[in-house]
Design a protein that fits this description.
mainly alpha; single chain
Length: 142
């Protein structure tokens, strides 16, 4: 009898865990749109969100601003600063903000210049290959 009771209690526990997991999965699948889209709609409004999605220049600009801001926030190390207290953290962040913005801007500029040089080098190589190919075709025609 004790074995039977133990088995019944284990089965009921397992079933209750399965039901709880099923309800959690059902709630997770009914979450709706991601939080960032809701926030964007609240801040921008529907018309601006749609125009932002249809205008690739604005979308690219927003992505660049987001990446730039994220790089600055990572450099500030906000959690470490907030351990000092709110007012000292604000003072410390205020003093660090300008040098961090300058540093991140320089790194962005260097990365953009490196990408431009890399693409221009590829373009020059392809132009040289095209010129060589046209010279070879010209020599064969002669």
């Amino acid at each position: 009898r004790s074995v039977w009771r133990q088995m019944e209690s284990e089965i009921s526990y397992t079933i209750s865990q399965a039901v709880t997991a099923h309800e959690a999965a059902k709630q997770a699948s009914n979450r709706g749109p991601p939080l960032w889209t809701i926030l964007a709609m609240l801040v921008l409004g529907w018309n601006e969100l749609v125009s932002l999605l249809y205008n690739p220049i604005l979308l690219i600009l927003l992505i660049i601003v987001f990446i730039f801001g994220r790089a600055i926030v990572q450099r500030i190390n906000l959690a470490e600063e907030m351990e000092k207290g709110f007012i000292p953290a604000l003072i410390s962040i205020g003093m660090k903000l300008t040098p961090i913005v300058i540093e991140v801007s320089q790194q962005f500029a260097w990365q953009i210049m490196a990408a431009i040089e890399k693409n221009s080098d590829k373009g020059q190589e392809s132009r040289q290959r095209e010129m060589a190919a046209t010279q070879v075709k010209g020599e064969k025609a002669d």
